Amino acid sequence: DPCRNFHCKRGKVCHAVKQGKPTCICQDPAACPSTKDYEHVCGTDNKTYDGTCQLFGTKCQLEGTKMGRQLHLDYMGSCKYIPHCTDYEVDQFPLRMRDWLKNILIQYYERDLDTSGFLTEKQRSKVKKIYQNDKRLMAGDHTVELLLHDFEKNYHMYVYPVHWQFHQLDQHPVDRLLTHSELAPLRASLVPMEHCITRFFQECDRDQDKLIALKEWCHCFGIKE
């Protein structure tokens, strides 16, 4: 099978031509496997798709058109009303996001105590200090004032989680720049819960080049030079 080890980008499938050579063609959205309701996704065209297969197959068929360039995965789940993000909310967003990233790393560290493999040895040594210092501020819904006070008092604990998340996303390719598609896994899963994340990332891109550099990312989270 010439397609066996031949990979195509999202929205395309392998097809063997007459000479037996593999080539990539657009996925037929109608041929995508059926999905459950919780697998539905919302596109940036505010249309609900049965799953990512249908969304990216549709995007592929629109390749070369303005509509195709503008169509991306917006967020996980069926399309719904996303409230407007106010100036006050977007200013407070980094406080919650920093705390959330810190708590994710602490949870990974705790799981590693039983089953290793969530973090590398180098990551574990960095998170260990955060874990040991964090018992005074347990995970949960904290007030903005408490989060701000903790960030100012324990600034060093928040630097690594912010860097860690950037490098988790910076994969295709690893170039210290985040593209729309690299941000998508984080953004798409958070939009229904954190309606300010889209505006937050837009404002992170200070030079408006549609890429978020490490320096821009850190500045957004209040990390010093």
Automatic annotation (TrEMBL):
Record keywords, A-Z:
Calcium, Disulfide bond, Extracellular matrix, Glycoprotein, Metal-binding, Secreted, Signal
GO CC term (a single one):
extracellular space
Q: Which PANTHER family match?
A: SPARC OSTEONECTIN, SPARC-LIKE PROTEIN 1
Pfam entry (one): SPARC_Ca_bdg
- Source organism, top-level taxon: Eukaryota
Task: Write down the species.
Answer: Fregata magnificens
The Kazal-like domain, residue ranges: 25-81
Q: Which GO terms describe its molecular function?
A: calcium ion binding; collagen binding; extracellular matrix binding
Give the protein family: Belongs to the SPARC family.
Q: Indicate yes or no for the key word Disulfide bond.
A: yes
Asked whether the UniProt record includes Repressor among its keywords, one would answer no
User: Where the protein is mainly located, per its record?
Assistant: secreted
Q: Where in the cell is it found?
A: Secreted, Extracellular space, Extracellular matrix
Q: What is this protein called?
A: SPRL1 protein
